Amino acid sequence: MAASNKKYARPVYLVDGKRTPFLKARGKPGPFKHADLGIYAARSLLLRMPFEPDEFDEVIFGSTMPGPDEANLSRIVALRLGCGDRVPAYTVQRNCASGMQALDNAAMSIASGRSDLVLAGGIESMSHAPLLLHPKMVDWLADWWSAKSIGQRLRLLTRFSPRMLAPVIALLKGLTDPVVGLNMGQTAEQIAWRFGITREQMDQFAVDSHLKLHQAQENGELDEIVPVYDAQGNVHEIDDGVRPDSSVEKLARLRPAFDKPYGQVTPGNSSQITDGAAALVLASEAAVKKYDLPVMARLVSTEWAALTPAEMGLGPAHAIAPLLKSQRLKIADIDYWEINEAFAAQVLAVIAALKDKDYCKQELGLRSAVGEIPAERLNIHGGAIALGHPVGTSGARIVLHLARVLQQNNAKSGIASLCIGGGQGGAMLIERSVS
Predict the structure, then answer these.
(1) pLDDT of 210-256, one tens digit each?
(2) Domain segments of the chain: what residues?
(3) Active-site amino acid positions
(4) How far is residue 67's CA from residue 73's CA, in Å, rounded to a whole number?
(5) Most buried one in 241, 271, 272, 287, CB count within 10 A?
(6) CATH architecture classification, 184-221+299-430
(7) What share of the chain is helix, strand, coil (3-state, %, to 5)?
(8) What is the C-alpha separation between 107 and 249, in angstroms, rounded?
(9) What is the Cα–Cα distance from 296 to 121, expressed in whole angstroms?
């Protein structure tokens, strides 16, 4: 593990950011497609900027599963926003960290001197994940359309089975690792077992997430959200998956979802399937001066790490440890933390791993434990268990919200981190000037 001081070569500033409410998927496609969400998140943001949309050097969004009619989603959003024909745009995919990857790409472009202004973020409309035809049905249809006679088609009819009409749910396929054959919930079960995390601990963590988010909504602490209006004229203003009446007793009634019947991970202590988008403006020092831009925070450094896909939920530990080491920091030096709540078991396991000397020595190559993240400094307004985890968006959302938290508390530094399907972790350090 290298100890070099890895920072972006030139200053990269987060000017401002906005996001849509996170809307829980409710069994059918939601009111907004991917591009619609991206437009809503970015349009209100750009109206606050003292420059025109066509002055961006690049547009970069992360997304994992845009629709077939939204290829290179970022370019569609850029054109619809009025960035013009000459502003290039591309879309990145790093599973759960796609939004953070977009920010990292934008930051590297600015740090290298190639760009001065970049619109970046994440977009995901999980409720619009497609239903696919079974491979046998695809083969049958191919034979049907290539048949050259009535006789051939009659013989094909004898091969047809209603079972072939059963749809393949793309979302479930996407949330299952093809290498180890485990879905994300099963990997959460594995790390819960490894660190002895109990069902009661998971459920209590989930309840706390809902209560913290509800309190933040009541106190008006989520000012990064912009309202969105659907085609029926309904307004959506808040993250609608929050359950302020949640309790450990209620969650205890839920059955295991991934390891039946003896598992501990349930829908209640897992993140929600959700639609949402986040957009951020990143700028160089020259652009900040040229346009007299406000600065929320500075992006200092980003660390990416990898581990076995079977324990992908521990990815944040593998990214946070080298990030701290490279910046010569300790946990006590970080004012606030955002760790995406893919599962309660997953966040609790990350906390346990970082304070476990044996894990840090054997898995992270350290001489001692990293330390314990203070609960009162972690996800202080709740997380994905309460507000949802639109996969391509969450990495951008946690960075944006962390910057807001630093502002609200007149704090200096924060780390945003998340686990990544496929066995990876990402962590980003941000700082702001404290008056």
Answers:
(1) 999 999 999 999 999 999 999 999 999 999 999 999 999 999 999 99
(2) 184-221+299-430
(3) 96, 419
(4) 9
(5) 271
(6) 3-Layer(aba) Sandwich (3.40)
(7) 40, 20, 40
(8) 45
(9) 16
